[in-house]
Design brief:
By secondary structure, the protein is mostly helical. It has a domain at about 30-70. The protein is about 55% helix and about 0% strand. Helix 2 packs antiparallel against helix 3 (about 60-70). The longest helix has 20 residues, at about 35-55. It starts with 14 loop residues before the first helix and ends with a helix.
């Protein structure tokens, strides 16, 4: 494994550099993980926000499975 450049270490990275790298993240996600990324970053948070408005915040079994599949 290639060592991380010093400028990207947590103690050294600037907010601007972090945000620039974060903006590039979607282009690094393999196509086979695109659906999992969409669930993790958009679909599930939107569903949780809607449930929060109704006073019931929970994850469905399918949402938990989607998050576990993404993690693995």
């Amino acid at each position: 494994m290639k060592p991380m450049e010093d400028r990207f270490l947590p103690a050294n990275i600037s907010v601007q550099a972090f945000n620039a790298l974060l903006d590039k993240y979607p282009s690094t996600v393999p196509l086979k993980l695109d659906q999992s990324e969409n669930a993790r970053l958009r679909t599930i948070p939107q569903a949780l926000e809607e449930r929060k408005r109704s006073g019931k915040v929970f994850l469905t079994k399918d949402e938990v499975v989607a998050l576990l599949e993404w993690k693995l």
